[in-house]
DNA sequence: AAACCCACCAACCGCGCGGTC
DNA sequence: GGACCGCGCGGTTGGTGGGTT
C-alpha cells in the first residue's frame, strides 16, 4: 500500500512564500513556539502543508541563521566534515549552528563539489588525506549485528577521526589553532550578495522583527495563557531555556533541535576547539568526571 | 534589445525513524 | 506487535536573476 501524501494537494499553496504568509507564520511561532507543525496550517489559516511551514521556518525565518557568503574556514570545515560524515547535512550543520542544512547542502552542490572536482583534475589533492579514509560515500551505519562493544569502539574511532579532521579544518586559522581564545570567528553578517533579491531583504526584515522576542514558553498552554493575559509581544530575553542550554555547553546534535529559537549565534568553533585540543588521555578522564564533557555528550547522543 | 545560457537557492518530494495508541 | 502519525533528513526540481552572445 502506498504512503498517503503528506498533505492533500487541494487548497494548498505551493511555491515561494509571500511576505504576508511569512508574517503569519512568524507570528504563530512567536506565540506558540516551533513544533506541532501539523497544527500550524489549521490554527493560522495558512494554505500550506505542515511540512512547508516547518521548512520555511527552519530554513529561512528562524532567527539566528546566517545566509550566503561562506567563509574560507567554513568552506574547509564543510569539506572535511563531508569527507567524514558523507552527505549528512544535518549533522554537518550542527557544527555550523548559524547555517542551515539546506544552505550547506546547496553550497556543497553548487560550489564545493565543482571546486573539488576542479582541484582533482588539476592534480591538487589537498583534501584526499581526509577523504580517502572514509571514501566519498556515506559512512556505513553501525551494523545491527555488531555487538555493543564493537559498535562503541567503532563509534570512538569515528569520533577520533572527526576530531582529527576538525583539527585539520580549523588549522586554517593558522598557528592560532593552539590558542583557541584567539581564534577569530566568522563574521556574523556579511553584506547581501549582489544576487540578493528584494524579497530576501524583506525576509531578513521579518527575521529582524524577531529580534527581541523570547522563545515561547515550553508548553502551548502556558503560551496561550500568557497571551491571554497580555497581547503585547514578549519581552526579549534570549535567555530562558535556550541561553542556559547554550551556556558553554557544546551541542553535537542538530542545532535546530538543540535550540530552534535561539536568536543569538553561539561561538561554536571555540567550543569545538576546546574539545579538540583536549589531550586524549585527559579527555577520557574528563569524560568520566564531567557529565557536560562534549565527548560524553557525543557518546550519549550517539548511543541514544 | 533580445535570446540564450548558467548559477543559485528556495521549496518540494519521498523515505525513514521514533513515538503513541 | 503492528498500524498510524508526525517530524526530520537528503535528494531533486523549478523559478529567478545575472551574464554572455
From TrEMBL:
Residues 9-61, 62-116 form the HTH myb-type domain. GO terms for molecular function: DNA binding. InterPro entries: Myb_dom, Myb_TF_plants, SANT/Myb. It comes from the Eukaryota. GO terms for cellular component: nucleus. Residues 124-148 are annotated as: Disordered. SMART domains: SANT (SM00717). It is found in: Nucleus. GO terms for biological process: response to auxin. Its main location: nucleus. Residues 128-138 have a biased composition (Low complexity). Keywords: DNA-binding, Nucleus, Repeat, Transcription, Transcription regulation. The keyword Transcription regulation applies. Residues 9-61, 62-112 form the Myb-like domain. This is Uncharacterized protein.
Amino acid at each position: 500500500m502506498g504512503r498517503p501524501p503528506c498533505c492533500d494537494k487541494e487548497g494548498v499553496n505551493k511555491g515561494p512564500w509571500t511576505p504576508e504568509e511569512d508574517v503569519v507564520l512568524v507570528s504563530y511561532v512567536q506565540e506558540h513556539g516551533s513544533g506541532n507543525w501539523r497544527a500550524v496550517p489549521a490554527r493560522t489559516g495558512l494554505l500550506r502543508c505542515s511540512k512547508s511551514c516547518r521548512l520555511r521556518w527552519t530554513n529561512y525565518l528562524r532567527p539566528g541563521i546566517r545566509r550566503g557568503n561562506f567563509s574560507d574556514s567554513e568552506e574547509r570545515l564543510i569539506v572535511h566534515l563531508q569527507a567524514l560524515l558523507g552527505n549528512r547535512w544535518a549533522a554537518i550543520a550542527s557544527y555550523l549552528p548559524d547555517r542551515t542544512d539546506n544552505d550547506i547542502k546547496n553550497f556543497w552542490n553548487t560550489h564545493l563539489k565543482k571546486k573539488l572536482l576542479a582541484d582533482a583534475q588539476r592534480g591538487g589533492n589537498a583534501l584526499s588525506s581526509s577523504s580517502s579514509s572514509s571514501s566519498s560515500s556515506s559512512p556505513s551505519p553501525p551494523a545491527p549485528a555488531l555487538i555493543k562493544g564493537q559498535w562503541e569502539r567503532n563509534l570512538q574511532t569515528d569520533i577520533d577521526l572527526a576530531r582529527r579532521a576538525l583539527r585539520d579544518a580549523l588549522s586554517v586559522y593558522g598557528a592560532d589553532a593552539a590558542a583557541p581564545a584567539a581564534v577569530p570567528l566568522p563574521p556574523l553578517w556579511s553584506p547581501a550578495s549582489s544576487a540578493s533579491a528584494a524579497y530576501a531583504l524583506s525576509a531578513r526584515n521579518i527575521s529582524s522583527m524577531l529580534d527581541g522576542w523570547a522563545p515561547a514558553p515550553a508548553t502551548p498552554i502556558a503560551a496561550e495563557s500568557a497571551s491571554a493575559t497580555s497581547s503585547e509581544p514578549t519581552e526579549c530575553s534570549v535567555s530562558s531555556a535556550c541561553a542556559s542550554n547554550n551556556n558553554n555547553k557544546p551541542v553535537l546534535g542538530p542545532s535546530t533541535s538543540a535550540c530552534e529559537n535561539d536568536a543569538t549565534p553561539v561561538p561554536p568553533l571555540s567550543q569545538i576547539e576546546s574539545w579538540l585540543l583536549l589531550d586524549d588521555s585527559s579527555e577520557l578522564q574528563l569524560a568520566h568526571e564531567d557529565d557536560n564533557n562534549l565527548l560524553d555528550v557525543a557518546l550519549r547522543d550517539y548511543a541514544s
